[in-house]
Amino acid sequence: MAIPSRKKKQGKILTLVMIPLDWLEERSGIVGGVKYFLFRKVPRDTSWWHTLGSATLTAFLVQATTGVVLAMYYKPHPDTAYESIERITNDITLGWLVRGMHKWGASVFIILMFLHMGRVFLFGAYKYPRELNWIVGVLILVLGMLEGFAGYLLPWDQTAYWASVVGINLNGTAPFLGPFLAWFLQGGAEIGSNTLTIFYAMHMLLIPGALIGLILLHLYLVVRLGVSSPPWSDVAAGRPRPTVTSNGRAGLVNPAPRSGKAK
Amino acid sequence: MSAVDERRAQHARYKEDVQREGHPFFPYAMFHDTVMSLVVVSVIVGLACVWYFTGDPDKPGEEGTGWLGVIYEEKADAGTTSFTPRPDWYFYFLFYLLRIFKWPDSVVLGTVGIPTIALVLLIMLPFLDRRMERRLLHRPVAMVAFVLTVVAMGVLTYKGATAKEAGAAGSEVVDKWMTDNNLPEDVRPGAELFATSGCLNCHTYDGSGASNLGAPDLTDIGAQPGKDVPYFERYVADPSTFGNNVMPKFASLGAENLHAIAEFLAASKGGGG
To answer: Which of B78, B84, B127 minimises the CB distance to A159?
Structure first.
C-alpha cells in the first residue's frame, strides 16, 4: 500500500474545498462576485488616507453587532428601560463591555464619517463621475446622526429624557411640517411610553435598515467607479498624457511620472 | 473638446491607468484597511474599558463619574425640573447655534434655517464645484470653504461643550435679585422656586443663569405690556399654547408654585437693575 504523496493529499483537500464553491458559483455566481471584489485593480498610490471609509464601515458593524446583543436584554418601556440598562451593565456577563462599546462606538462612527467626508473633499473625489456617491454619503451622515439622536433617549435617564424633550420641541419649530413631526415623534401629547417605543423602532429598524441599504449602494458605487488617487500623486490614475501636448495646451499638462516613485 | 467630453476622457484615462499599473485590492489595499479596522475596534474597546473601570457602576449620576463621564445618569423623571438639556457631543454645534439666535423672532434660523442651508449646500457640492481640478493649491475657493467649515464646526462644538451650566442658584443670588430689582418681599418664594426649578438652565436673570436654546433674559419681563400674573401662570404651565414649542411644560410644578413663580416674574420690571 503506497503512502499518498503530499501532492495528492493537497489535491484532495483542494477538491473538497472546490466542490461546494463550484456548487455555489454555478447557482449564484457569488464566488465570481467575491473574486471580482477582491482582485479588482485599485490605483497603485492608494494609501492610509483611503482606509477611512472601511474604518467607518467597521465602526458601523461594531454598532450593529453590539446593538443586536443590547436589544436582547433591553426593555423599551418607561418603567423598565432604565432598570434593564442597569442590569446589562451590572449583571449580564460582559454586558458593560457591550454597552460601553455601543456607547463609545457611536462617537467613533460619527468622527470617522466626518473624517472620511473631509478626505473625500480634500481629494476632490466627489467630482465626476462620483457625484451620486457623495450624495449617498451625505445621506448616510445625516441618518447616522439621527440614529444617534434616537438612541440617546433609550437609556431613559435624566439627560436623555430632557435632551429629547428639547430635541422634539425644536423639531416642532420648523415651519409647516414641524408640529406634525414633533407630534409623530412624541407619539401623543406627552413624552412617554409611546415616545420610547417609537424611538426604539426608529433606532433599531427604520434608520439602520435605511443605513444598510445606503451603505450597500455606497459600496457598489465605490467598486463600480473605483477610488481616486491622491491629487498630489505623480502617478495618479487618469493623469494627463504627455502626448496631449499637441493640442497646444502644453503649459497645463503634468509632466510624465518622475522616475522610481512608483510603489 | 467640450467639458463633458473632457471629463469622460479623463475617466477613461483613469480606468486605463488603473488597469495597466494599479494593483489588486487584495492584499494591498486590504492590508491597510484591515490594520485600520483593527485600530478602530481597539479604540472602541479601549474607550469602553476606560469608561467602565474608572467610573463606579454602583453609583448613578455624578458620584460614579470616571474619566469618560458617568456610567449612568439618574433615572428620567418628568416631575423634576432641575434638568440640563444637553445633547450628545456631536450635536453641540447645533446646540450652540441656538444660543446665537434669540427666541422667538430669529430662533427658527438656528433650528431650521442655517442647518437646512448647510445641508443643501453639502448635498449640492458636486454640482457647485464642477471643475475636474483636484490639486489642493489649485482649488482656493474649496480650500477656504473647507478651513472655514472646520473652524466653525470646531468653535461651535467647543463653545457648546464649555457652555456655562447654571443649574440651581443659591439663596444669596435671590437676595441680590431682591435688592437689584426692588422686588417686594412677598415674591421671595417665587424667586427661590425660579432659582431652583431649572429655569436658569436656559434663561438668564440679573446676570445669573445660562442663555440656552434662545431663551430670553427675564430680568425685566414683567415690564412688558399684558404680562401679568395669570399670563405667566398659563405660559409656564404650557408654553406651547403660546406658540413656544421649545420650552418644556412646567404644569407638574402645581398651581401654587406656578402662582408664586408668576408673581415673581410679573414683579420683575428691571427696577434698579
So the answer is: B84
